[in-house]
Write a structure and sequence with these properties.
By secondary structure, this protein is α/β, with parallel strands linked by helices. The chain has helices spanning 25-42, 47-63, 65-76, 80-104, 138-150, 163-175, 193-198, 211-223, 246-258, 275-291, 310-325, 363-366, 382-389, 405-414, 447-451; strands spanning 6-9, 16-20, 108-109, 116-123, 126-130, 153-157, 183-185, 202-208, 227-231, 236-240, 268-274, 329-332, 353-356, 373-379, 394-395, 397-401, 419-422, 437-438, 441-442, 455-462. It has a seven-stranded mixed beta sheet, with helices on both faces. The protein has a six-stranded mixed beta sheet with strand order 7-6-5-8-9-19, sandwiched between helices.
Length: 463
Amino acid sequence: MTSKKICSINPTNGLLLAEFIPDNSLVIAHKIDRAHHTFLSYRRTSLEQRAKYLLSVADILEQRQQELATIATLEMGKTYTSAIAEVQKCALVCRYYAKHGADFLADRPVTSDASQSYVAYQPLGVILAVMPWNFPYWQLFRCASAALMAGNTILLKHASNVPQCALAIQDICLRAGLPQGALQTLLIGSEPVAQIIADQRVQAVTLTGSESAGSAVGAIAGQAIKKVVLELGGSDPFIVMPSADISQAVQTAVTARCINNGQSCIAAKRFIIHQDIAEQFVPQFLAKFQALKVGDPLAPDTDIGPLATPSILQEVAQQVETSVQMGAEILYGGDRRIYAHTPLSAGNFYPPTIITNIPERSPSFSEELFAPVAQLFTVDNIETAIKLANATRFGLGASAWTNDPNEQQRFITELEAGAVFINGMVKSDPRLPFGGIKRSGYGRELGVEGIREFVNIKTVWIK
């Protein structure tokens, strides 16, 4: 295993915040063993006690929200305002499963040829959670709250650029009274993941991340014949038809593209506008992009902070540049050299960008752009809109704006996505299942479906 340190670096200015020695093989083995032995006792705790733990976690999240938000903003660059909202949403999902978890996990009677038969939902054991940096608290708690309520224990392998967020999550769980092995942070890179998945004490894996990471982890889990949930990338369409409320659609479109500095798998990325209202939509869309303030994410009036890492900045710049070389046109932005002689030059800042006339084979047409870059298309009918929306290997979410009931039903039926939002922004909600199809992954988080992903759905037959 590499001895390279795990570093927390401020993407606003490139300065080192903290560094950590990675867990060696002995430490990893000890944490796996602790997680397994904790599970053997934790699985016997009552659902009422598990709910109390989650409620305590929620209380601590709210009490420490300012501290936690600051850590996230400094480590990965999200605006402080959005970081506060993220922590609050984590408390919300913990309370949701504390309230509804017992009902979701209750035995379900089934009439059969037995004297008594039912379906029981029992915990699996140790779950490895491989989590990304873009929502460092929410991505973990939306799966961990359900897994802990179900009686599992968790090993958290967080993204290497947010180690302080990862350690804060572990500390919160301990302060909430959960057993020491219920949720442990592994300070590791990607190298030990395969060995951890192969360990017989680890029963399942959940990963939120890139398409390539999902493919790799899915293959490893498949070889080990272990359950896996994958929530991967997205290139979500945002379709606007003539009957839509254009002003509301424009406002939501800008928010949907620029959420989390444009670094969200469910952010709207491809804006598909009917030609009959393009002359009305595009100027408003452009004006709102021009009004966005890029700057220090800790400042309350900042709309967009830096991208999380220099490699992400380099990748999106290359995607846009290549697309332009292939014939795409920049309507706005697209050149970070505007920051060359400003304080922003020290950070990973990329300007809000709108790109149009995008060729089919260009990166901007077929790839996910993880930055505040909007891909703008115009179409002449609903058939073309749906065809273009589905012309991607991803299938996470889709937003369609129309007040025509027939069009609404066509979008609901024909858009290839794990979620379709009509006249609203795609978002995650504890009450609704979340996940994708195609190359956006499989399995679900949240809702009743999420808590039943990592349980043994056991048939019980008694005569």
